[in-house]
Amino acid sequence: MSNRIKNIFNYRSLLLMGILFLSSCKTENSVTLSKQLKEPWEKLKQIEKAINEPFFRDANYNVIAYGAVPDGKTFCTENFKKAILACSKEGGGKVIVPKGIYLTGAIHLEDNVNLHLEDGAEIRFSTNPENYPMVHTSFEGMELMNYSPLIYAYKKKNIAITGKGVLNGQANETNWWPWKGSDSEGHLYGFKEGMPSQKDKLNLPALMEMAENDTPIEKRIFGKGHYLRPNFIEPFGCENVLIQGVKVIDAPFWILHPIKCTNIIVDGVNIQSHGPNNDGCDPEYSKNVLIKNCTFNTGDDCIAIKAGRDNEGRKVGISSENIIVRGCNMIDGHGGVVIGSEMSAGVKNVYVEDCVMDSPNLDRAIRIKTNTKRGGFVDGVYVRNIKVGKVKEAVLRINMHYSVYGNQTGNFIPKISNIYLENITVKDAGKYAIYADGLENSKIDNVVFKNVKIETVKEPFNLEHITNLQVIDTYINNKKIDQPN
User: Fold this and answer.
1) Which of 101, 254, 277, 379: disulfide with 348, CB 3.0–4.6 Å?
2) How many helices (H) and strands (E) does the chain have?
3) Cα 35–chain centre separation
């Protein structure tokens, strides 16, 4: 055989080996990706099995029998308290709120109590801060002694709020909301120059300093004379919590805030509240949370998963994990499902499926926000079967330079990895399909867009400091998108 023929043979052999090698790598990569996409959803089944719905004794305690008057004028705080204490003391059951309007201050739940609002019942919460006693609570990821949340439970087990009634916080431009002061976008919410607000140095700035300096919680005394708004519904350190069916409107601040809780179910809740910081649901330092069949029409993030702020979050060190969002409808809000910005203890295993997100006033579908002062980590966000109508900014927004309240730089480097979006349809994605802004020394790692179809968007990608981005079977502006540079 001549040398020329030998060279041709060797070249073809090498070429064939190369093709086989590349094909093998491609098959191996495909199998690896398929496994990465499948395994988390298998794990989801085990997580969901561990979420226990509370069980209640078959006994009813009607608040009217304890003196409550449903005329919308008579204060019923003590009547609710008597019914709840009697129910819990005798082994638990339902505290029934019949049709009518009930005016009250703070309601505190006890073990084994289901606060049940019948169809046509409305609980209206006082707008007088003096009707909310000082309790151990939280404000924007920092614990403190402050006004009681409107409905509060501290270290209780087996509790619920259920029914078809309405929980009305009565917050508006004349009460609670002006305490916010003007926001970064110039919204006033009734605030006028010269009014007190949370921005005053003795309020939020003082709390931030206390949290940074590890001041004991019992010495972080706010409440009267300060202007930090209460959460609406806050189970604090509770186990087996159910919030089901009710409609919640006009909240002072965060609306559903389970903090340091295990086994939370939020089912079929309708939230309509457009005030400042009116996040719909904020699980914080919490594990095994199922949010399903809910409607969120909010003034801030629809769902915002938290894990403590800055030094305090790192000190507490309880990550939020195993959060399931299923079958929900997100309308107005800064984001559909959001992680951060208070996430210093970290977030992992977030599942979002079968949701609809659509509003000209919805900024993003999926959002992650942190910075080098917050730090923290996000590991594992799994999103599938989502229908997006219109969002303003992006389908997926990841921001590691999130800025609020002045300088937000520090030495705590966040890490974000393993973000998967699969089977997503979008009519109008606004500015970007993916807007990801990582750090040079902590790149966003392993982001997958698979079978994503976006009818209209200004630009497919705005990317900085991101590695291992995979775009597969994805069509944007009616064009199949190759791997971005």
Assistant:
1) 379
2) 4, 35
3) 27
Span 15-67, pLDDT tens digits = 566 555 555 555 555 667 767 778 999 999 999 999 999 999 999 999 999 99
Assign residue 441 a region: left if phi > 0, alpha if psi is -120 to 50, beta otherwise?
Answer: alpha
Q: Which two tokens stand for residue 271?
A: 């939230």
Q: With CA atoms as reference, report the closest residue to 302 among 241, 363, 240.
A: 363
231-262 residues labelled b (16+ CB within 10 A) or e (exposed): bbbbbbbbbbbbbbbbbbbbbbbbbbbbbbbb
300, 301, 310, 363: which one is catalytic?
300
300 tagged catalytic: yes
Signed CA dihedral, 369, 372, 375, 381: sign only: positive
As a whole number, the mean pLDDT across the chain is 94
Q: Assess whether 379 carries a catalytic annotation.
A: no
Q: Which amino acid is at 252?
A: P
| Residue 457 near residue 476 (C-beta atoms within 8 A) | yes
**Chain CA centroid to CA 169, Å:** 20
The structure tokens listed for 393 are: 């900014």
Q: Which amino acid is at 393?
A: E
From the CA atom positions of the chain, what is the Rg in Å? 25
Catalytic residue chosen out of the listed positions 108, 116, 274, 334? 334
How many residues would you count in the chain?
Answer: 485
The reply to whether the predicted model has a pTM over 0.90 is: yes
Residue type, 76: C
Reading the block at residue 292, the tokens are 């399903």
